[in-house]
Amino acid sequence: MGSDVLDTDTLLGMGPMAPVANPYPLYRRLRDDNPVLPIRTSAEAEVAGNHRSVLLTRYADVKAVLSDSQTFGSGIVNRTMGLVMGPTIVGLNGREHLKHRTLITPSMTPRALKGDDFASLIRAIANDYIDGFIDDSRVDLHDRFFFHFPLTVFVSVLGLPAEDVDWVHRTACDLCLVAHDPLKGIEAAGQLLAYFEPVIAARRERPGEDMVSKLIRARVDGEQLSDLEIVSFLRLLVLAGAETTNHLLGTCFFRLVKDEELMARVRADRSLVPVLVAEAMRWEAPISTVMRETLSDTEIAGIAVEKGVALVCHIGSANRDERQFAQPDQFDMGRANNDDHIAFGFGRHYCAGSHLAKLEAEIGINTILDRLEDIRPQTGEEFNIIGFAFRGPDRVPVTFRPIA
After folding, report:
1. Residue 311: its H or E element
2. Looking at residue 138, which CATH number applies to its domain?
3. What is the CA 156 to chain-centroid distance, rounded?
4. Nearest to 361, CA basis, from 255, 261, 278
5. How many domains does the chain divide into?
6. pLDDT per residue over 197-241, tens digit each?
7. Is 16 helix (H, G, I), strand (E, B) or coil?
8. Cα angle, residue 92 at apex, residues 297 and 157 outer, rounded to 5°
9. Structural domain boundaries enclosing 136
10. 147, 393 in Cβ contact below 8 A?
11. Are 175 and 239 in contact (CB under 8 A)?
């Protein structure tokens, strides 16, 4: 659905996985006219028990909310997505959040995952996927690389069978449907619980050096994660972790194949790859919305907001705010402040796996450019970036020539 027929009620009623083509003209109108917009109570807010909801679309307001965990809490996340995720770090406040972050973060560093060989592992996985289509001269990069590659990396560090990648990914995506299709979301949660519980039991019996074993061994002040907390974190990891890098890679190559000059610049100067990744994160935040709630009466942009209100913080709109970024709808590799994007969040809940997502994306991009040349859109094949809560292209059909 394009922006010419889009209104707020329609957009929010379509669900988090809706294939929205271009909502940014609507977001611009909201930033200008209604930056703190009362909206029909979202399905998430109804489930969580919040009495009303507002949508925040300006950069300064969204960043201020994410920065202030005393006034704006994350408990709404565990009362909504927690129904299928279980209790996760993104839905905790205060000391509980600090405890879980301290337990989990050490297991997320590249050195902890696979030591000095982690980058080599990522590159090997990327090459394996490219080997699968290198002789074909044409490929849908989303279907044959972007969708599978990031989760395959996680599956490897979790010590899970590689053949389970597709099932785990698609089942994890169904978790997002809980507010709009509760039965499907809850079914997916049960399937992932049944899948991960025996894995955790086996690692308790015979621990190794995989991430699950490290989570089991983690201790802070004598406390450790329960099996349910580990399962909850793994559900979050396979959904948010895989989807972030999947959509990020898709957006990067969407820009590259649509702009021959940009492709040539990046191919010739690989120091531009991190810049490409940062601007892609700003231009199209892979995860575009996060939820918070007011813990006390407060003001946002000079507007009174009472305690108990659900806040839909629109990161995608914030990253296109002309008050923060000049000509924000342009994809500009020369932008001086593209690292000011908040696609990984901000404050205490800043994404613990952000460095992994960027590392995977940079290695994935470089490996494709190392092995394929003359990468162009397939003639007659239209594709675009779509989505509401998750945004990225769902297909990237290209032709190419293998590099000898």
Report:
1. strand 309-314
2. 1.10.630.10
3. 19
4. 278
5. 1
6. 999 999 999 988 888 888 888 887 788 888 988 898 888 888 877
7. coil
8. 150
9. 3-402
10. no
11. yes
Paired tokens of 63: 């960043």
Question: In this structure, how many other beta carbons lie within 10 angstroms of the beta carbon of residue 380?
Answer: 6
Q: In whole angstroms, give the CA distance from residue 185 to residue 179.
A: 8
What are 229's two structure tokens? 């907390």
141-181 residue pLDDT tens: 999 999 999 989 888 888 888 888 889 888 988 887 777 78
Q: How many residues in the chain?
A: 404
Do 90 and 69 contact (CB within 8 A), yes or no? no
Q: Of 32, 11, 6, 44, whose CA–CA distance to 312 is shortest?
A: 44
CA 53 – CA 230 distance, rounded (Å) = 31
Question: Coil, helix or strand for 72?
Answer: strand
* The token pair that represents 376 in the structure block: 């162009």
| Residue 385: strand pairing partners | 393
Query: By CB neighbour count within 10 A (0-12 exposed, 13-18 middle, 19+ buried), where does 264 fall?
Result: exposed
| Residue whose C-alpha is closest to residue 56's, from 357, 244, 313, 345 | 313
Q: What is the pTM of this model?
A: 0.91
Q: Cα(10)–Cα(39) distance, rounded to whole angstroms?
A: 11
Phi, psi (5° rounding) for residue 257? -75, -20
318 close to 45: Cβ distance less than 8 angstroms: no
Residue recorded with tokens 């108990």? 308
Torsion of CA 169, 170, 173, 175, to 10 degrees: -100
